[in-house]
Write a structure and sequence with these properties.
Blueprint (H helix, E strand, L loop, with lengths): L4 E11 L4 E10 L3 E5 L6 H9 L6 E6 L3 E2 L6 H4 L2 E4 L11 H11 L5 H10 L19 H13 L5 E4 L8 H17 L5 E6 L2 H4 L5 E6 L2 E7 H7 E6 L4 H5 L4 E5 L2 E7 L11 E4 L3 H12 L5
Parallel strand pairs: 3-8, 3-9, 6-7, 7-8
Antiparallel strand pairs: 1-2, 1-4, 4-5, 9-10, 11-13, 11-14, 12-13
Length: about 300
């Protein structure tokens, strides 16, 4: 399958005192929802900050939609096509909802006030039916601030959403709504709209993830379409007597008094012949945890 990409990155590097981001190549497919998965401190936010232009002190090259480079990020044409939500003070704490509406209208030609109001209502940003225009950002909960940011980006006509941990502050019902919003956004684009979001809530976001990028220690440890990853990695379950032998073959293994289960690379399955094991299709959560365990500094 020949793919187009909404973002292509090459040789991205950023060094901190005790951390180094090193991404030789990153390709985000166009027309899909791509999840950036990793434990806290893996480098997800640093990478997103580079892609959005929040952080400019890095090495490497970026290409957007096959037309623009990172030098064009502040140009009107590219800025209008990208929507971003992030943690922290993306909206300043003292801003009121009315100020957010006016600032968004000034910054983006494609911001639509009526659509903003509709999304605020649909996402229940406020407890009542009316928008509380004088309410300040600092008076909102973390989850409500995220809903407000989502309303802001969805009020615009964009081709790419870059979402940094959008599910993290949301309750389970709103996470389900977020998945529906991502699916609808992509379907509405007829192959031209894409979403790139970071998450450590893998289970909650799995059903909307088409392509996964797993990061550990500032590097990409694995990447691919979810369907392909579920062919590359298999879930194996077996008996206690085979734990020691299987442990030498499996990519990761968890044991219990009753036996073991673990992730095995499909091309190593022949090495399990003679063992009494069952084979199942793993979830993206199980694959991601296995890959992260293999590359993490945490001692498991």
């Amino acid at each position: 399958m020949e793919l187009d990409f909404c973002i292509r990155a090459e040789g991205i590097k950023k060094k901190f005192k005790n951390f180094r981001l090193d991404i030789p190549q990153l390709d985000i497919p166009k027309g899909y929802a791509t999840a950036l998965i990793g434990e806290n401190g893996a480098g997800k936010t640093t990478l997103l900050n580079i892609l959005t232009g929040i952080r400019l002190d890095y090495e490497g090259k970026l290409d957007y939609f096959g037309t623009y480079t990172d030098k064009d990020r502040e140009s009107g044409k590219l800025k209008e096509q990208i929507g971003y939500t992030g943690p922290g003070n993306y909206y300043l704490p003292h801003w009121t909802i009315r100020q957010i509406e006016k600032i968004s209208e000034l910054l983006f030609d494609n911001f639509q006030k009526e659509r903003f109001k509709q999304w605020c209502s649909e996402l229940a940003v406020f407890s009542g039916e009316e928008i509380e225009w004088k309410k300040k950002v600092r008076e909102l909960s973390d989850g409500t601030r995220m809903k407000l940011m989502l309303a802001g980006v969805l009020a615009r006509d964009t081709k790419l959403l870059l979402l940094d941990e959008p599910a993290s502050p949301l309750d389970p019902l709103m996470r389900d709504k977020l998945c529906s919003m991502i699916r609808d956004y992509i379907l509405d684009g007829n192959g031209e709209k894409s979403v790139f979001f970071s998450t450590h809530n893998i289970s909650d976001m799995e059903n909307v993830t088409d392509y996964a990028i797993i990061m550990e220690r500032g590097k990409i440890a694995e990447a691919g379409f979810v369907e392909d990853l579920k062919e590359k990695y298999l879930l194996i379950k077996g008996e206690r007597e085979d734990i020691e032998a299987a442990g030498k073959i499996l990519y990761s293994i968890t044991t219990s008094p009753y036996g073991f289960e673990g992730i095995c690379l499909a091309d190593r399955m022949e090495q399990l012949s003679g063992m009494n094991v069952s084979v199942e299709v793993p979830s993206l959560f199980q694959i991601s945890v296995a890959v992260m365990k293999e590359n993490s500094r945490i001692q498991m």
